Amino acid sequence: MAVSSITITLPTQPNTHKQQQCSFTLSSSPNATAISATHISPSTNYFIVKAKIRDSLKWRTRASSFISGFFTKEKDIQTLKEDLYDTIKPLDRGAQATPEDQDRVEQIARKFEALNKIKDPLKSNLLNGKWELMYTTSQSLLQTQRPKFLRPNGKIYQGINVDTLRAQNLETWPFFNQATANLVPLNSRKVAVKFDSFKIASLIPIKSRGSGRGQLEITYLDEELRISRGNRENLFILKMVDPLYRVPL
């Protein structure tokens, strides 16, 4: 930040001709610039000058508090991410989560939601791309009622493009199933999801007859992490893997 100095000549006492020079060093805030640009005569009232300087210091204090709060918030988010990743790492996307584990992840998710800066995620380009599912409570995805070898064991992805309002779910090993959907905005952070096509083993297309429907609300979003909630109170936590990915139309 640039610093400027000004020297002001003031009378020391009323009815005297002795003058005193006072020097002030100010940061180049809007207030400081105004002071240094103002013509100050020997008859300048000391208290007016003092008030202007106090205003400048208040501006600097507010700016300092804002910057300090910003970096504190960023530090809190980074600490939460480390806590989140450590918590969900052994949970097999949620398939191995106990009720206590679910409560712990839920508490962390709510802390993220309280710090969310993207209030209108459907208007943000941060939403675009391919996201990897890290954790969920959705049984339709986890399928814990099945033997492990009949569940999706590879990574699961979700692609979203806000400009075309298209979404895509992609399973990997062993089934490689896919589903694509249209997104219908309900507000600036919530969409209705209407699946229109499926692919078995990424090869066999099946047209949907409108049976696949749901809602999704994006409650936290940044460059690498997304938290969403479904209409059945399911929690989804995803990590960005490819911001350039495009969902087929």
UniProtKB/TrEMBL annotation:
Compartments it resides in: Plastid
Top-level taxonomic group: Eukaryota
Major location category of this protein: plastid
Any single GO CC term annotated in Swiss-Prot or TrEMBL for this entry: plastid
Plastid lipid-associated protein/fibrillin conserved domain: residues covered: 78-239
Record keywords: Plastid, Transit peptide
Membrane-spanning residues: none
InterPro entries: PAP (IPR039633), PAP/fibrillin_dom (IPR006843)
One Pfam family named in its UniProt record: PAP_fibrillin
Family: Belongs to the PAP/fibrillin family.
Protein name as annotated: Plastid lipid-associated protein/fibrillin conserved domain containing protein
Biological source species: Parasponia andersonii (Sponia andersonii)
